[in-house]
UniProtKB/TrEMBL annotation, chains A, B:
Family: Belongs to the group II decarboxylase family.
Gene Ontology MF terms: carboxy-lyase activity
Keyword Ribonucleoprotein: no
The protein, known as: Uncharacterized protein
Amino acid sequence: MGSLPLDASSVRPLDPEAFAGDSHAVVDFLAEYYRDVDKYPVRAADLEPGRLRKLLPEAAPEHGEPLDSVLEDVRRDILPGLTHWQSPSFFAYFPMNASAAGFTGEMLSVGLNVVPFLWAASPAAAELETVVVDWMGKLLGLPSRLLFSGGGGGVLQGSTCEAVVCTLTAARDRTLARLGHEAILRLVVYASDQTHATFQKGTRIVGIPPSNFRVIPTSAASGYGLPAGAVREAVERDAAAGLVPLYLCGTVGTTGLGAVDPVRELGEVARRHGMWLHVDAAYAGSAAVCPEFRGYLDGAELADSVSMNPHKWFLTNNDCCCLWVASPAALTSALSTDPEYLRNVGTTTGTPAAIDYKDWQISLSRRFRAIKLWVVLRRYGAAGLRAHIRRHVTAAKWFERAVAADQRFEVVVPRRFSLVCFRLRAVNDDVNRELLSAVNESGRAFMTHFVVDGKFVIRLAVGGAMTEMQHVMDVWDLLQGKADEVLQRYYQL
Amino acid sequence: MGSLPLDASSVRPLDPEAFAGDSHAVVDFLAEYYRDVDKYPVRAADLEPGRLRKLLPEAAPEHGEPLDSVLEDVRRDILPGLTHWQSPSFFAYFPMNASAAGFTGEMLSVGLNVVPFLWAASPAAAELETVVVDWMGKLLGLPSRLLFSGGGGGVLQGSTCEAVVCTLTAARDRTLARLGHEAILRLVVYASDQTHATFQKGTRIVGIPPSNFRVIPTSAASGYGLPAGAVREAVERDAAAGLVPLYLCGTVGTTGLGAVDPVRELGEVARRHGMWLHVDAAYAGSAAVCPEFRGYLDGAELADSVSMNPHKWFLTNNDCCCLWVASPAALTSALSTDPEYLRNVGTTTGTPAAIDYKDWQISLSRRFRAIKLWVVLRRYGAAGLRAHIRRHVTAAKWFERAVAADQRFEVVVPRRFSLVCFRLRAVNDDVNRELLSAVNESGRAFMTHFVVDGKFVIRLAVGGAMTEMQHVMDVWDLLQGKADEVLQRYYQL
């Protein structure tokens, strides 16, 4: 079935038998990929731009081709050019978890292919989303005012950046409704020098002047958390100058270093000055499934919105971002549309059970992401997800201790979750850079870097779905070996 | 395997055997769904909000549950609450095609779960995207200046709305770089009263004053296309008043009626006044795979950007929106970010082969959508896709003739693609509304409506992956029967 070319006149795109034949073949292909993934260089071996483009024809084929030749091309031309995010030795950026549950949940979403942009356009899909965001919120210990069951509510989006654009738009329009649109030129947004670049981009997208984006410096003294006092001073200075403080972003688990901003203190500043507080827990929010990490979200009841990405460290294949808001009305009054072609029987608003999610996001159309996250929660349960998080935290702790015990290295900032930031001490940045390159070029692991206080730092982000203690021990062996080589060269010069 | 509950301490989320067992079970579940989909009421039968919410527990389970019970719950609780977008008798909104190729392509994307936000973060994934958007552009006969091979380029996004926000941001920032940010208050955006609501929402999101969104009226005389003369007058009036005409949206295949704006004439107005012209061919762009429909895109070489959604009528499961731009630099200079944690080996810019796609979209992270569209193009080929489009156009033509031949009905606007807009003539809107309700409540088909020139119009959008001529003949039978009943009641009163 999968091996026959398709005759154009007889294309039956959802013939159940042909569908099943092709899909079973791809399942087996992927299972084989997972079996072999640690045999590939983690970071794409061949970094010459244009390699794939040269291999492929310049136009789509005129006639359909058999699945076998497509899969053969994937194996031969594409896999060797990928960076293998699911490799157990992928420690770069942040993890992007795949899992059997996330995959099968996504298969249900993609296979049913319904579009729950209006409640009426697929009632059970919209309702499942309201259920699953409440489940997630409870699982992470979020305050009830952010849940539907407590008067707030949540939505699943594709990324933190979308969530930021939506909440910035809501905050902006709430303020402009009072002050007039001209005041857009006076709105100010606050973040730290550790806040994700997404916030600056989002601020720009929604039309707030780039010069009104305030970057508050952090330092080792506060563990690179955003000091509430400095925010207060900046806000007061801006207010005194006739500007309008609008939006403050606090992060729990920054991208560079895993730093944590003091949510409660930031919330108090935001409340006092009528600002929208968003808490970005994209990566570290997953850890809050374990009670021992909930303290970092203390004060979240002062936030107007909170977001985290199950697609990072929560076994939910890309994409899935949870956004919770205290005031759904603030969001929907900025983002709703009501054209005639969408006014159909069954559309209602106001109750959590009958939400038109198009008014909670940038786009009109959307995927049935809720079923993916629901399958993950059902299949692994809270206990399974806690075990998943703790496995990585334990491995990261082990690695942190190993680094600290080796005189040649230093831990740059204390580990809070599963990210360890370290460097070779007593040598310059170039040597550290060389060490990282040597590791990555070996193909046996992939890590990325950060720069803080002018120092080049290597990041080991533990969290891959297949990553076990042994892989972390292996990468430490690899690092020690490469450090020997690099330092030997350095001291010989 | 799939039937065993998971022990928390032994969760191995990507164990190849467990992955394959679960995934094969879900493939069979979906194949069965496709076999049975025409047995469900097309529109969700039970429209009482809250039905599903009441059936589900208030919190996620503590312990993992077997796949079988999850699938049993999907079958019992979720499927009956869905509107079945893949039913062959779904004629509402626009089609949202699933297909075996789209599904297996998405499986590869979701299973590999790589994140091609930087070229270096997955080179072959980024490169495949540059190849596949060029393939698509050539297939639709787009001018080469919108393709990488001609100095422009394309990107795959999730929705037209995202594409609109990106291009509006690019157009806005190109103009503000010249005039200063204060000029944001003077920017003006133009569309017709038939343009998708997405454009008004996008304009609002990017901070352009809502009062600067111009809605140009259309009429039956122009087939509800946007009259270029009226645009020119509005633009000249605004310019004379000190405003800054920024962005003009033309649509090929409007959502309400399938109307077509005169792209070339709009392009000439846009050029003369330095405006960005975007052509939205979300639905009808797919038809351009057939040469007989390419004329509607005549003048596209005057556009700054063009978008269309393979996830509508091009056998590519949701989501997938192609956006092409003539000037990639205009897009990336508005949307690029370059934080330290993303400065890694291998990042280059400027060549189509080494693109950092994060600078072409709202979000940082992204999915490997290119492999999905590539599998669709490979599996069906240009010939298969043309056959797919023509099958539906033929069925829509047949339906249009049947309606025209029945004295009780009228075709409201000439069909151009596969959308037929019609109504019962000589009776009021309430009777038409009643007819539509009767059809939808039968569960045997689902259509939606539109209002034009104050008249209620029923829309039959042909285009489902399983929709054959017979289904269109059946819905015409159904409509005639329901019309008998409704008109009998009407004339008895």
